[in-house]
Amino acid sequence: MAQQEDFMGIMEKYLGKFNTEELHYMHDIPDIVTSIREAALLTGLTEDTIRYYEKVGLLPYAERKTNGHRQYSKDQILGIIFLTRLRSTGMTIEQMKHYRELSEQGADTLSVRYAILEEHQRKIQQDIANLHETSEIIAYKLQHYRELSEHPDLEDTNCNTST
User: Fold this and answer.
1) pLDDT tens per residue across span 1-31
2) How does pLDDT run across 46-103, given as a tens digit for each residue?
């Protein structure tokens, strides 16, 4: 149990907070992933996307087995999962590539990486606020339509499309 708590602490430190189901899933990632197909299943990306990310330098090229097939470490898979999080929140491939390059340079770039993630988090929070506002507008419209359907005004012949 202590090992699992240590693992969860490490994951939270490097990747941010995840729900319990995600953390248990990450704990189940094998130390060595022996094919691109398995890597795709674990990360939610397609095999072609993983190949493309390698080609453009977003991911380091995977180690190869003697038969030429790709092989990934658990850390590489977790890194790919983190990149999918950044991508799903609107970070461009170029920005992610820059972040990864900084990561490879080690502790000297920690403050720069921190600033990048801090700015990205601000953008995400603004996106969330915008989505929340839009959701409230849609909820209002739905309530308005519900009221109209329950209490139609048959004398109103106005065909106002903004209603």
Assistant:
1) 444 444 444 444 444 445 545 544 555 788 8
2) 999 999 999 998 988 888 888 888 899 998 899 899 999 999 999 999 999 999 999 8
How far CA 137 is from CA of 45, 127, 130, 152, in Å, comes to: 34, 15, 11, 21
- The CATH architecture assigned to 2-91 reads Orthogonal Bundle (1.10)
Residues contacting 58, CB < 8 A, separation 6+: 83, 93, 96, 97, 100
Q: Tokens for 71? A: 């092989």
C-alpha distances out from residue 18 to 2, 3, 25, 119, 124, Å: 18, 17, 10, 20, 16
For residue 120, give every residue at least 6 positions away whose Cβ sits within 8 Å of its Cβ, in sequence order, or none.
Answer: 86, 89, 91, 95
Tokens of residue 136, six digits:
């409230």
153 sits in which H/E element:
none
Q: Which residue has the tokens 């609107």?
A: 90
Regarding pTM above 0.85, the answer is: no
